[in-house]
Amino acid sequence: GKGLSRNEMEIASQHLKLGSGIKFYHISDYRNLLTVKKNKLTALINNVPPHENVGQNFDELLKDIKNIDVLNEFVENNKITINNNDYMFYPWGVSEKIKLPEFSALHNKSCSCVCCAEIVKGIAKCMNIDLAELNNATGDTDTDLVEKASAVLNEIKSHDVVIAHINGTDEVSHRKDLVGKIKFIEKIDREFLSIIYENADRNTKIIIVSDHQTSSQTGKHEKGSVDLIMNITKKEIRGTSIWLE
Fold this sequence. Notes:
By secondary structure, this protein is α/β, with parallel strands linked by helices. It has helices at 6-12, 58-61, 69-77, 103-107, 118-126, 145-155, 168-174, 178-199, and strands at 22-28, 31-36, 80-82, 85-87, 111-114, 130-131, 161-166, 204-210, 213-214, 221-222, 228-230, 238-244.
């Protein structure tokens, strides 16, 4: 969806040609969901994230899709032109429904999640984790971090653990914008972490962790160690986990 506004991406997702055995759901921005009957997937599909394969040949990237009629027809029938640029819907990877354990059953603690990214919201719902309501979160660097900090401080009043997910560092890294990533991390420190640190109960334990590396040079997820930062309290009564991608 590069070059398109959120509204243009939503409109593009509203009038699609769908074959039998396939359903389409627009989630937000460039994110969409296809559901396909299992018996329609007659071949294996490799996971090929588009943001990690910028500049690569489409025929090579989509060679698995071409062997699956229902997906190949979807791609070919829904190519569009907007503002003199050509766009297509790109089947990125495949997964299937699973059942996740409840957070309270795993840890015997109540939990709330402050997030915008749909995948994190979905995990939270599957694990029966409460979700804080946000009005100005975007899942990117233009998200309202002050609103997120306020939500964390509010949720920690009634939950043992609060997980705050910040996705903008991942998105800006995929765009290979090193300066933008540095500025956003500084913004997180200034408009999010500082507010929580200064206003949370003195017994609150704060943990900052990332689930993976994302290189600003390659634009790809990378293997390797990630930082773990935490403040140690005298009494670990409540906890806030800050999840940076």
